[in-house]
Amino acid sequence: MAGLWNRLQRLLHHRWTEGQVRRAFPPEVLLRLERQVAASEARHSGQVRLCVEGGLPYSYIWRDATARERGVALFGKLRVWDTEQNNGVLIYLLMADHAIEIVADRALHRAVPAASWQAVLEGMQQDFRRDAYAQGMETALLRVSDLLAAHFPADAAHHTGHDASLPDTPVVQGRFFKDM
């Protein structure tokens, strides 16, 4: 019975938090992030996607899934894995659990030390503790872009630096947005 009660509490918390997404990421912030993703991808051969969710879908809560599980699932659903050099990265924020996940594809995971990813996460956490969500996401995007540019620079002869097959628009999900 305690497990059911905990799930119901978590479900209510996640549904309540969904309303905060719009305040933290208003349309002008999403547009600015979209432009920054496009500028980032001109510097390297990788693909960057941003995803923000207020709360997990019901099925994830019911089975006590983690933010990491959701991030990995979205990495696949958003086709971030589908880059020529296996160097895509998803920056995922789950507001209800105050969780941040960075999911990097195989080649990027091999090239970038774990300490570099941890530094990006810690910077985001500091900004988010101050409710500076937009700043945290922008700073993380810049740091991830620097890592991608260092390990997978754009090759002007063979690559424009931008994979037009995946959109630059951040994916924002919650009560007011389409769920994936």
What does this structure look like?
It is a single chain. The chain contains 7 helices and 4 strands; from the N terminus they run H-H-E-H-H-E-E-H-H-H-E. The chain is α/β, with parallel strands linked by helices and 180 residues long. The longest helix is centred in the N-terminal third of the chain and has 23 residues. The two termini are 30 Å apart.
Strand content: 5-15%
Poorly predicted sequence stretches spanning 5 or more consecutive residues = 157-163, 175-180
Quickly give the structural class.
alpha/beta
Rounded to the nearest angstrom, the distance between the terminal CA atoms is 30 Å
The number of helical elements comes to 7
The count of β-strands is 4
Overall 3D shape:
globular
Radius of gyration: 16 Å
Strand order of the largest sheet: 3-2-1-4
Biggest sheet, in brief? 4 strands, mixed
Percentage of residues in helical conformation: 40-55%
Indicate the topology:
Layout lengths: L1 H23 L2 H15 L5 E7 L4 H5 L4 H11 L10 E7 L4 E6 L1 H6 L2 H16 L3 H19 L19 E3 L7
Parallel strand pairs: 1-2, 1-4
Antiparallel strand pairs: 2-3
Structural key phrases:
single chain; 180 residues; alpha/beta; 4-stranded mixed sheet; 4 strands; globular; disordered C terminus
Report a brief summary of the structure.
The protein is α/β, with parallel strands linked by helices and 180 residues long. Helices cover 53% and strands 13% of the residues. The two termini are 30 Å apart.
